[in-house]
Design goal:
Blueprint lengths: L4 H10 L7 E6 L5 E7 L5 E6 L6 E5 L11 H10 L3 E7 L5 E9 L5 E9 L6 E6 L5 E4 L36 H18 L9 H8 L5 H12 L6 H17 L6 E4 L5 E4 L9 E4 L3 H9 L2 H39 L2 H13 L10 E5 L8 E5 L6 H44 L3 H13 L21 E5 L5 E4 L3 H11 L5 E5 L7 E3 L6 H13 L9 E7 L3 E2 L10 E2 L3 E5 L3 H6 L2 E4 L1
Antiparallel strand pairs: 1-2, 2-3, 3-4, 5-6, 6-7, 7-8, 8-9, 10-11, 10-12, 13-14, 15-16, 15-23, 16-18, 17-18, 17-19, 19-22, 20-21
Helix pairs in contact: 3-4, 4-5, 5-6, 8-10, 9-10
Length: 591
């Protein structure tokens, strides 16, 4: 993983600004993440601790996180022992991806207690553990590790904390000569040979660095090996030592250069040293927290949303496919109904020429008096029916086809409406946050599409008014965006004033967007239209049609699906979203 021991060392150094500050609030926005709001020594900062198995990290964050209505038990425990406490120290254990945050707090009896939050950033084994600093007893962990999972170390309340197992690697910060450097590499080679069942070729320089020294990720090792390979005329061993020593001297002095290198295919990497071996664009950052914030961005949140919405996506796609199939069958029925007049004409011909055939006949040839040329037509008969019953059989077919046309057209319109509704939900899930997902799930439960997932005896809380995403235009005006039908209905039907301007992509599933101002310039209108296009099914396209009108001209028909409205007196503009311009607009979540 890219977050290696050196990145964590840079983060721990940067977090020293928080030592001496007090923990004002603790939140747990997800099952993997904690946010500690601090006050005091380093100013008001938010510290993110994440044991996400894919994106584990620790850094100061500027992002806002949506918290559950009821805090999880681990969050409540941390509030009990750490909220109001003072951060005594933040230290990395050797060059390992383990961080200890010591917190001193005075309990309700006035006694001082010292707790340690241990953050282990080890991929899928990542964890956040609260321990008693004096005894090493675990109060709890954000992820439990039972004896069935690991016989070596248990993470359960009341058990004693055991550090992750040693890997037998050397601390690179203690290597101050080429002789010690070579000895460490040779020791790693010997360990590798002992573990191999059969002789194998010598390891590549980057793999030797990873095997010999703690804190080195494969990415960092490849960078140093690449730099050494570019040293013209130098002995390979000498060149590798030179680059290793140069990098370590910069790391000892905390002369870090946090940066992100992005390949042409979009794949990105980060480190505390320039990644010259990776082709593509590079971005440098003033601090490691800023770098990590930019790198991870919404990745962890998007992954969490994907896991949460997988069942809903499958359900909605299945429902959409059913309605498309239903529409095809109804179209076929409608096509058959076009023959209604043919059945009536044949019934009338049989009535006229009833004397020309009798029971038992399979067909009859008669003159078609509807034809100008008086051509003959052969009419199929049911031999088991009388002439009169055969005529009535065609009249019944005529009546059935005629009567079914209206019903089928009504059913087809319902199916189209259902497809439009399902398309809108699929579009909303594409840009939904965790809170948005829960509102969409509640909507599906209320509509009878899904069953409620409440436990027995659990009382469902009355839904609060939804929070809305609000952008500030370049003219300083608020632009609200509804990201699901619950938010759309609240925004359009309750929050917005009659003189506000409402926007929506023309005939394309998307968000309701409202400019909450009676007067505004072209730049605000353009930005609102860009947001409407960005939060729509047409995202990524160009010249997207966006309708806009006043709220007073927007109405919800009686009995319509959630989020569906009709409007008039609209104007249409065609807009190509400028993603950089959208990102530059300040945004916040408002309740």
């Amino acid at each position: 993983m890219a977050l290696d021991g050196f990145v964590l060392r840079a983060a721990a150094h940067e977090l020293q600004q928080l030592v001496g500050s007090r923990i004002h609030k603790i939140h747990q926005p997800s099952s993997h993440d904690l946010v500690l709001q601090t006050r005091g020594a380093g100013g008001g900062k938010r510290l993110l601790l994440s044991a996400n198995p894919t994106y584990p990290r620790v850094h100061v964050t500027e992002r806002s996180y949506q918290n559950p209505m009821e805090p999880p038990m681990f969050c409540m425990l941390l509030r009990k022992y750490c909220e109001g406490g003072q951060i005594e120290s933040i230290r990395q254990i050797g060059m390992e991806r383990v961080l200890h945050i010591e917190i001193r707090q005075r309990d309700e009896l006035g006694d001082l207690s010292l707790k340690t939050i241990i953050v282990e950033l080890m991929g899928r084994h990542s964890n956040i553990i609260l321990t008693d600093s004096a005894t090493g007893t675990i109060h709890d962990g954000i992820h439990h590790v039972t004896p069935a999972i690991s016989a070596y170390r248990i993470v359960m309340p009341g058990s004693r904390y055991v550090a992750p197992p040693e890997q037998g690697k050397q601390d690179p910060l203690g290597i101050d000569s080429r002789e010690r450097f070579e000895a460490a590499l040779e020791a790693a080679d010997a360990r590798s040979d002992e573990q191999a069942e059969a002789p194998r070729p010598a390891l590549a320089p980057d793999k030797r660095l990873v095997a010999a020294f703690s804190g080195f990720s494969p990415l960092l090792a490849r960078e140093l090996a690449f730099r050494a390979s570019k040293a013209s005329g130098a002995d390979p061993g000498e060149a590798l030592w030179t680059e290793f020593d140069r990098f370590l001297n910069a790391a000892r002095d905390h002369d870090d250069e946090p940066n992100i290198a992005e390949q042409p295919d979009g794949k990105a990497f980060f480190s505390i040293t320039p990644l010259s071996h990776i082709p593509g664009e590079r971005r440098r950052f003033a601090g490691i927290s800023e770098c990590l914030e930019a790198y991870y961005g919404d990745k962890a949140g998007r992954d969490a949303v994907k896991q949460r919405v997988s069942d809903m996506l499958q359900f909605l796609n299945n429902e959409r496919a059913k309605n498309v199939k239903k529409l095809e069958k109804q179209a076929a029925t409608l096509e058959e109904a076009k023959d209604a007049d043919k059945h009536r004409k044949l019934g009338e011909l049989l009535t006229t020429y009833m004397h020309s055939f009798q029971k038992g006949d399979r067909s009859v040839s008669v003159v078609d008096y509807y034809d100008e040329n008086g051509a003959e037509v052969v009419i199929e008969l049911d031999p088991q029916l009388s002439p009169s019953d055969n005529a009535q059989r065609y009249f019944r077919r005529y009546a059935k086809a005629r009567n079914s046309t209206g019903a089928v057209l009504g059913q087809m319109e319902l199916a189209r409406e259902e497809i439009r509704y399902l398309d809108s939900l699929l579009q909303q899930l594409g840009s939904a946050s965790l809170q948005d997902v829960e509102e969409i799930r509640d909507e599906l439960v209320a509509g009878g599409y899904l069953r409620a997932r409440e436990k027995r005896g659990a009382k469902r809380k009355k839904a609060a008014r939804p929070s809305l995403l609000c952008y500030t235009s370049s003219e300083g005006l608020p632009i609200y965006v509804g990201k699901n039908n619950t938010q759309n209905e609240y925004l359009t039907n309750k929050l917005a004033a009659s003189g506000d301007t409402w926007l929506h992509t023309k005939d394309i599933p998307g968000s309701h967007v409202v400019i909450r101002a009676a007067e505004f310039g072209d730049s605000t209108l353009e930005e609102a239209a860009m947001l409407a296009a960005h939060y729509s099914q047409a995202q990524g396209s160009s010249l997207i049609p966006v309708d806009y009108t006043l709220i007073r001209h927007v109405h919800k028909p009686s009995g319509a699906k959630p989020g569906f409205v009709i409007y008039d007196r609209q104007k249409t503009l065609f807009i190509t979203p400028d993603e950089e311009r959208i990102k530059a607009l300040p945004s916040t979540i408002r309740a």
